Amino acid sequence: MAYILQVDFQMNGPFGDEMAEAFTELAKSINEEEGFIYKIWTESPETSEAGGIYLFETKETAQNYLTMHTKRLAGFGITDINAKIFAINTKLTEITNGPLSK
Q1: Which residue in 4, 37, 49, 53 could disulfide with 86, CB within 3.0 to 4.6 Å?
Q2: Which residues of 5-32 are buried (b: 16+ CB within 10 A; e: fewer)?
Q3: What are the boundaries of each domain within the chain?
Q4: Residue pLDDT, tens place only, 12-46
Q5: Does the keyword Oxidoreductase feature in the UniProt annotation (predicted)?
Q6: Where are the alpha helices (DSSP H) in the chain?
């Protein structure tokens, strides 16, 4: 069963194209994480928030990534992180065209 990892935190930028340019190498490295399927990057310049919605193969790989990512964010001075891991109801997600694979 696949699992969603939802992460968000306060960030003062960059956003938009500047964020894409600044985090391209990070985005590429995420593709190499064990059990990783995809990430949807989230940002809100109006509220100074950023984060993402990730899909992982298992709850364990989602938790392992969250542990590593929390440490990485702390290295950037980001420590107030909101994170949740959710199981996916595959049958309902398929009905509503939710992407469940690469």
Answers
A1: 4
A2: bbbbbebeeebeeebeeeeeeeeeebee
A3: 3-95
A4: 889 999 999 999 999 999 999 999 999 999 999 99
A5: yes
A6: 16-22, 24-30, 59-75, 90-95
pTM of the model: 0.89
Query: Which residue do the tokens 């992982």 mark?
Result: 56
**CB of 53 within 8 A of CB of 37?**
no
Look at the block and give the residue holding tokens 């064990």: 34
Q: What would be the CATH architecture of the domain defined by 3-95?
A: 2-Layer Sandwich (3.30)
DSSP 8-class letter at 21: H
